[in-house]
């Protein structure tokens, strides 16, 4: 949303398959000193509403920090290595990308799912694996098998076996690593320790038992702003459907820390297999979409303006 609607466009017939495509006209991309992808252009937001502190963290001289670490090549392709927050700076000065290790980990027999995080170590962080295993598999043998396929500086130095049915996940099924780390390290945060969360939204003091809607009088916009501040500050993800008229500040803290009453339903292993994904793609393309077209017809308007737009884009390229 900060760079709406798009930064790059990928064409499978023209672009490097390992990339996310090439930058669209009217924008600039550069790689920061730490490898972070920076974007500048008319599509980049002016800032977060009434939140200059968060704006200053992400915007500098018009350049937006995307949070993605990547690179470019001589042909203009953009490659993403992973999220900056998932990058693990080791004690020997190396940057390890969790995604690289997770790809190997999750292809290993006996691993239902697995993630990699960085745990504090002398002078940096150590690579730590968190494993969700199939019954009867030895975690030490699994870690040993994974390490044999990694470079020395990438190898997993420690591991934990996740005892719950599944990892805490977002609505898009991404693992909430911040919540996993909290349970691993036993740390917790109190949102009332940071007064900025409710600044400008609530007059006076706020207590843990205050009800967000009934007591504090937050409307839907204020509530969305408070949730957004908490998610950005603590790296958590809160489902607003879980918030009702009687939800208290303490309840909101529990949701931010992943201690809500949501029932965890584990993702079955078969749902992640290639044959399942292929069947889903074929079923969607041949049956669902084609069936939808039997009842609904798309009638585009303004096609005559496309030629005019393309001329403007070509003019921008020439300029």
TrEMBL record:
InterPro entries in alphabetical order: ACP-like_sf (IPR036736), AMP-bd_C_sf (IPR045851), ANL_N_sf (IPR042099), PP-bd_ACP (IPR009081), Ppantetheine_attach_site (IPR006162)
Record's protein name: Carrier domain-containing protein
All residue ranges annotated as the Carrier domain in the record: 175-260
Keyword Phosphoprotein assigned: yes
Pfam families from the UniProt entry: PP-binding
Listed SUPFAM superfamilies: Acetyl-CoA synthetase-like (SSF56801), ACP-like (SSF47336)
Species in which this protein is naturally found: marine sediment metagenome
Keywords: Ligase, Phosphopantetheine, Phosphoprotein
GO molecular function, one term: medium-chain fatty acid-CoA ligase activity
PANTHER family with a match to the protein in the record: ACYL-COA SYNTHETASE (PTHR43201), MEDIUM-CHAIN ACYL-COA LIGASE ACSF2, MITOCHONDRIAL (PTHR43201:SF5)
Family membership noted in the UniProt record: Belongs to the ATP-dependent AMP-binding enzyme family.
UniProt keyword Ligase, yes or no: yes
Signal peptide range: none
Biological process according to GO: fatty acid metabolic process
